[in-house]
Design brief:
9 helices, two-stranded antiparallel ribbon, single chain, alpha/beta, Spore Coat Polysaccharide Biosynthesis Protein SpsA, Chain A, 9-stranded mixed beta sheet, 2 domains, 292 residues, 18% strand
């Protein structure tokens, strides 16, 4: 089945993203329905965004669900066959969705399609080893970054015992986990190189919360890295994989402690905390502490 504007919905998970999200929304064709899942539980934002845009439904989460669970909530509220997952800090090229629609007509089966980042030095995909590809047509990849990925809901919902995003991940690697699951099930993941997207990177949350969000990201990056590797490769391989990170974080924490660099000390303290909690099998509980 090929994609059309009528059977496609967009899901955007937001958190203190009011200052940036409209750039993303305005890059999406107004015929396409958009679900915004706001993890800030901001009633004022919901009222504003739904009054301004006729194609948007804003769902307020009762708590900060993170990316994986937030996307799942958005997907549950979609009746269309396809869902384009976007971060608030992205903007689609004018023809990005049209190019994905065109590409889908020539593909027999796919689980995920994704546009390509306009920052060629930072590719938003991972290739299979030694794979060649042609930038004039869709090419298969091992995984795509979570800031822009189109899910074939009609096909994926038919998979046995399949969930979309593992909600144990709060932040980071939930997209790699989903892609790995699909590759294991012999599903195809494609990049559509004629479909372009601009990702600002790390700009989804208002800059006034920058310091606390940086601490949160460092905590969850280490938690997710160990959890991902343990889930797919076992505890021993996961520990070997993160051993360098563990030693490095310990050394840097001590160094910044004795040199009275509190900012850097807190970052590596967060990395150690996230890593230790993941090793001990604790959930990804850390949440940013924001004061409005």
């Amino acid at each position: 089945m090929s994609i059309s504007r009528q059977n496609l919905s967009v899901v955007i998970v937001s958190f203190k993203s009011e200052y940036i999200i409209e750039k993303c929304i305005n890059s999406i064709n107004k015929e396409i329905k958009i679900i915004v899942v706001d993890n800030s539980n901001n009633q004022k934002f919901k009222k504003y965004i739904e009054n301004k845009y006729n194609n948007i439904k804003c769902i307020l989460s009762s708590e900060n669900l993170g990316m994986g669970a937030g996307n799942n909530l958005g997907i549950k509220n979609i009746t269309n066959d396809f869902a384009l997952i976007l971060n608030p800090d992205v903007a689609l090229d004018n023809k990005a969705i049209d190019e994905i629609i065109n590409a889908s007509k020539d593909l027999d089966t796919f689980g995920i399609l994704a546009p390509i980042s306009d920052k060629t030095q930072y590719p938003n995909y991972k290739l299979f080893k030694d794979d060649d590809f042609d930038l004039n047509k869709p090419f298969k990849v091992k995984s795509v970054d979570g800031f822009a990925m189109l899910l074939n809901l009609k096909r994926l919902k038919k998979l046995k015992d399949f969930i979309f995003f593992d909600e144990n991940f709060f932040l980071y690697l939930e997209n790699d986990d989903l892609c790995k699951e699909l590759i294991n099930r012999k599903e195809n993941i494609y990049i559509v190189p004629k479909s372009k997207i601009n990702h600002l990177g790390g700009k989804a949350v208002d800059i006034k919360y920058k310091d606390e969000i940086e601490l949160c990201r460092n905590w969850h990056w280490m938690w997710s890295k160990f959890y991902f590797n343990k889930k797919h490769y076992g505890f021993i391989k996961a520990f070997i994989n993160i051993f360098y990170n563990l030693v490095s974080a310990k050394i840097k924490f001590v160094y910044y402690l004795i040199t009275f660099n509190n900012h850097k000390r807190k970052i590596y303290q967060m990395r150690l905390s996230g890593l230790f909690n993941s090793i001990l099998g604790r959930r990804s509980f850390y949440r940013p502490k924001l004061n409005d």
